[in-house]
Each structure stands twice: as C-alpha cells, then as structure tokens.
Amino acid sequence: MDQALLMSIVSACVPALASIIVVFIQTNKTTVLLEERDRQMKEELVKLSNKVETHNNFGLQLAKLETRVDILERKN
Q: Would you say residue 1 has pLDDT above 80?
C-alpha cells in the first residue's frame, strides 16, 4: 500500500475517532443528568403524594367531626 494512501486513511480516522469519543462522553453526561432529574421528580412526586394523602385525611377527619357535632346537636 502506498504510504500517502495510508497517511490519508489515518488522517481521516483520527477526527472520526475523536468525534465518536466526544459523542460517547456527551451521551454519558446526558444520561447522568436525566437520571438525576428522574430521581428528583420521583422525590417530588412522593412529597406531593404525601401532601395529598394528608389533605385527604384532613377531609375525612373533618367529616367525622361534623358527624359528631350533628349527633351532639340532636342530643341537646
């Protein structure tokens, strides 16, 4: 094989390899960021679910209290 042809092939492969490495690194960074966002969203979902549950329990307790007040008012 001619030395000039070999140099051309090597010269073409070096930037291609560099591009592949950069894409690989960027993909890994993006994956890490997305996983972190996913984890944060799951934590936020748990917090919001707990707030909703607390709110729902408050509504149930209020209904029980209203029932008790009605019973007491009927007795008097």
A: no
The CA distance from 27 to 6, in Å, is: 31
| Residue 30: Cβ within 10 Å count | 10
pTM (predicted TM-score) = 0.60
What is the pLDDT at residue 18? 95
Helix (H, G, I), strand (E, B) or coil at 30: helix
The contacts of residue 28 (CB under 8 Å, 6+ apart) are: none
Which residues are within 8 A (CB) of 23 and not within 5 positions of it... i.e. 6 or more apart?
none
1 token code pair: 């094989």
